[in-house]
Amino acid sequence: MLLSSISFLWICQSPSFYSITALLFTLYGFPLLIHKIHNYFYPLEEGISYLKGKQYSPWWGSHQIQSIYISFTVLESGLRLIPGAFSFWLRLWGAKVGKNVYWTPKLEIADRSLIEIGDRVVFGQSCAVISHAIKPKKQDLMLYVKKIKIGNDVFIGAGSYLTPGVIIKDETFISAESRLYPNNIISPTLSNNKIELEKLQN
User: Fold this and answer.
1) What is the pLDDT of residue 5?
2) 122-135 confidence digits (pLDDT tens)
């Protein structure tokens, strides 16, 4: 935020190609660079861990780096106006994103490196894709992290909430306001209002 403020003041004082480039790099390039360096030294691992211990949590550091885009959603909303730009942006963070993915407004992605999305996927408005869950356990905070995987030709209705470990198979229709709980497989064998959930076997 400090670098962004300095870059903005530079533009106000002396607008130029360099000052505009500095602001864009501060908003988009710098957090991405820090994230890649962080992941090199502290690779993000799936599974269960605890946040109150002395051991450093790679997920916590990764999440804090991405928090600017969660707090200021307009930074990524602008990318969705450019065809293919938001998908490319997510790939830079380590996500696997296929072709012809349609992103609608107010979509929230909390863990950009922990999603796999196939081709021709449509996200309804105000969907949330959250690859982590935190809950109190024995005077500690238990963290569960697992990738969310979405197949090809999937439609996810508006207001749906995807949680860690969810797998949505090819050609699946998810109705609006669906809550998909951790480690469930959602198959395409559904009617308009039914979703068959199968518990994922590890």
Assistant:
1) 78
2) 999 999 999 999 99
What is the model's pLDDT at position 8?
Answer: 73
Query: What's the Cα-to-Cα distance from 15 to each of 9, 30, 91, 119, rounded to whole Å?
Result: 9, 20, 31, 41
Contact between residue 132 and residue 110 where contact means Cβ atoms under 8 Å apart:
yes
Residue 32: the pLDDT is: 95
Give the CA radius of gyration of the chain. Answer: 18
Is residue 66 a contact partner of residue 110, using CB atoms and an 8 Å limit?
yes
How far is it, in rounded angstroms, from Cα 149 to Cα 119? 12
Q: What are phi and psi of 123, to 5 degrees?
A: -105, 125
- b/e per residue 96-132 (b: at least 16 CB within 10 A): ebeeebebeeebebbbbbbbebbebbbbbebbbbbbb
pLDDT tops 60 at residue 49:
yes
Reported as a single tens digit per residue, the pLDDT across 132-149 is: 999 998 888 999 999 999
Q: Which residue has the tokens 């963070």?
A: 93
Place of tokens 């390039």: 29
H or E element in which residue 161 lies: strand 161-162
- Crossing angle of helices 17-24 and 2-13, rounded to 10°: 160
Q: How many CB atoms lie within 10 A of CB 146?
A: 22
Spatial distance between the Cα atoms of 148 and 158, rounded to a whole number of angstroms: 18
